[in-house]
Design brief:
- The chain starts with a helix and ends with a helix.
- It is globular.
- The chain is built from six helices and seven strands.
- Strands 1, 2, 3, 4, 5, 6 and 7 form a seven-stranded mixed beta sheet that branches.
- The chain has helices at about 1-10, 30-35, 75-80, 140-150, 155-165, 175-189; strands at about 15-20, 40-45, 50, 85-90, 95-110, 110-125, 130-135.
- It folds into two domains: about 40-55 and about 65-150, no CATH class; about 150-189, no CATH class.
- It is an alpha+beta fold.
- Strand 6 and strand 7 form a beta hairpin.
Amino acid sequence: MLEMLEVVHAHDSQQPLLFLGDSAYTSSAMLQAIPEAIAVTGRIASNSRVHKMAPTENTGQRGRPRVRGERLQTPDEMLDAKGLRRLLLQLYESTQYQVRVAEQVGCLFKASKRQVKVVGIEHLRGGRGREVFYSTESSADAEQILRWFSWRWPIEVTFHDSKQHLGLGEAENRKPKAVRRTVPTGLLL
């Protein structure tokens, strides 16, 4: 996946590239490996450790420079606060979500070199509970980050339907060349 992102970015490095992924593709370890020129929006756990960015100036302490700054609230702790902003989000065409929103800017524990905006939401109706998202586009507001993350859903549905209805996950090929062309051909149908 990293190779694919690098190839797409190298094709037109002047064009900004926004990578949207679920937690398997946007974990802290993956975020650290994704080139900084590629903006990333994804999901993280509600107990994720968030820190301030490491101080850039010399702090006068001996030893190696700090990797990350002081610890900030976890998303769960952010959402425990009273008086949070409430939003009515319109996502996925007709679905509306009423949520409480908390946000902060910092860095994730295992990806301390990339600044992120962490957005925690708590659904007020529907039983979905708490969800936490982040984006390396720290200037974006919470609504925009949530909207970006929602854009991945049609892609997930496309892959699911392709496997279910076209049998792309069950190709019965024997030759390596046939295996490599079955899925792309099926997706074109």
